[in-house]
Write a sequence for this structure.
């Protein structure tokens, strides 16, 4: 759970909805501030480059963008390294495309730089696919029953779509900037830019949402770099108290059917469960040692249903 949830004492689901709404607001504010052709507020012209800065809309554009990124970081914190890959790929593609179209007539060095930037962007996505699929196969190796739920087919296809639409978007942006017509602009380059940016925002959310939903139970979220991790992947079926391999028990959520596990140790006579908030492994009924959240019963990671072990349906599958 992120900072906002802790401060306002929200449950995880509410926090996630608020963060998506906030990030969308900041995104639109930033987009509109950047879009205002004549800017809002007084003008400042930077000498040398001849770029114009508007005293109100330019800071709004930058701050809105940063706040939007911060909300996304809070929303998808469990897999945020992928968010960084995605951001890097976005800016590299944007720069590459702008250079390509704006510096078109200034010799092949610009041309080459643009190509290098685009290749770098593609390699970022390649690393991201590698990272996500490695994590997925680690989880499926440990918990084969999760294979079906972790199908990521259409997810990988969205990554090239993301690059393509970013290129189209900044093509429109360049044409708008140069104030000239090009293929497929139809005199509407600015609208094209706005619409493609909104599509990109949607795609980015989906690219982050899928692995976050699928993996969050298995990757422990921690604010510190801990050497020893205690998540479901590293300590499969281990009792948290005595570290012996113990019996795994499965339960189905009575509200939404999501499967949760506990590990019951015969020696200690206690259940180990993973904290619904940060996925750290803890003893049932105790406060989480990592995030300090109370875990009285089992809480469903999907629908936030809370109940003692007897209120959960036993899954014998
Ligand atoms: Zn034990
Ligand atoms: Zn916790
Ligand atoms: Zn549920």
């Amino acid at each position: 759970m992120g900072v906002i949830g802790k401060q306002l004492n929200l449950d995880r689901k509410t926090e996630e909805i608020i963060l998506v709404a906030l990030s969308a607001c900041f995104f639109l504010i930033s987009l509109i501030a950047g879009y205002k052709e004549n800017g809002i507020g007084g003008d400042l012209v930077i000498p040398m480059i001849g770029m114009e800065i508007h005293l109100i809309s330019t800071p709004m554009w930058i701050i809105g963008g940063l706040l939007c990124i911060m909300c996304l970081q809070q929303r998808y914190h469990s897999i945020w390294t992928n968010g960084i890959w995605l951001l890097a790929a976005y800016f590299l593609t944007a720069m590459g495309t702008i250079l390509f179209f704006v510096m078109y007539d200034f010799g092949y060095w610009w041309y080459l730089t643009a190509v290098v930037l685009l290749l770098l962007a593609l390699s970022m996505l390649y690393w991201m696919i590698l990272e996500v699929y490695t994590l997925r196969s680690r989880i499926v190796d440990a918990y084969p029953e999760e294979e079906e739920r972790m199908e990521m087919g259409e997810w990988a296809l969205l990554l090239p779509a993301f690059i393509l639409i970013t290129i189209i978007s900044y093509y429109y942006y360049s044409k708008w900037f140069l104030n000239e017509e090009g293929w497929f602009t139809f005199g509407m380059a600015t609208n094209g830019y706005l619409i493609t940016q909104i599509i990109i925002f949607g795609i980015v959310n989906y690219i982050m949402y899928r692995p976050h939903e699928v993996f969050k139970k298995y990757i422990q979220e921690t604010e510190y770099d801990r050497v020893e991790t205690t998540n479901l992947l590293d300590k499969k079926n281990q009792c948290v108290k005595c570290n012996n391999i113990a019996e795994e028990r499965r339960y189905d959520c009575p509200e939404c059917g999501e499967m949760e596990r506990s590990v019951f140790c015969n020696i200690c006579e206690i259940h180990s469960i993973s904290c619904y908030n940060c996925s750290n492994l803890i003893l049932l009924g105790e406060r989480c040692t990592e995030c300090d959240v109370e875990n009285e019963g089992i809480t469903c990671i999907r629908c936030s249903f809370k109940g003692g072990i007897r209120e959960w349906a036993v899954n014998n599958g």
